[in-house]
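Re: the 306-residue chain
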Amino acid sequence: MPAIIEETIAQVGSVLLGKEHQIKLALTCLLLSGHLLIEDLPGMGKTTLSHALAKVLNLSYNRIQFTSDLLPADILGVSVYEKDSSDFKFHPGPIFSQLVLADEINRTTPKSQSALLEAMEERQVTIEGRTRPLPLPFFVIATQNPNTQAGTFPLPESQLDRFLMRIELGYPDAVAERILLKGEDRRAVLERLVPSVNVHQLQELQVEAEQVKVSEALLDYIQRLVLYTRQAPEFAYGLSPRGALALLSCSRSWAFIENRSHVVPEDVQAVLPSVVEHRLREAADFSGHGGTALAQRLLTKVDVIG
């Protein structure tokens, strides 16, 4: 992989032990200016990953703790009347950062969740009739607890689709957990991280990732995957064109991280679960917990060569 990417992964991996694959998936997403959803149990390192990425990528960072009483103004900002100037002055909210952590996003009401929609799609927010641009680059990393836990408000499909990828961190393996138990506090390690790229270099990496070549045969494979979701009876509905484009873009970005100038089927297979699981529903179960099984079915049932 490119040296600058390798350094970034190594630094983040020094904080989040044993999770190189998940770190690479997160970078795959951010290289495309996409937004990332991390779903897992509390205490698995979701917040640590986002903070480490912000430090290593040298991005301004804000964390928003989503709670049941959070208001849209707490995210976007508000105008306050100032007596000295006899005028209203806008005080920007935490959304005005390059990397925003929306922590436990499904613990707030749909009204507050929707405050992120324009920001994630348009890289701007409209407040009191005025449109305000957000800093670039702009990424949202949202974490959510499993919907089976108490006090959660499931994200609607329209908002889930705004996330380019969804990942799970999972439990550490025995070796990583032993290092974690015997080592120093991860917060101390986090404080020692230094930027490995600047904004200009990050933008150059994004351009290079978009230039990875894709063959006609590879496009055929992606179309077969998408078509299977639209025709197989176990799928409640198929992948949208936006989902197909997301799969192609993420395959390009993953190939770039792996230091390839063209996409191979293994690149598609590496990113497919993270791209499609949150976009798929089982026909017999609309609870949203069947996406993982459906993604694995795609990998086993759709031939690489048509």
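The chain has a mean pLDDT of 88.
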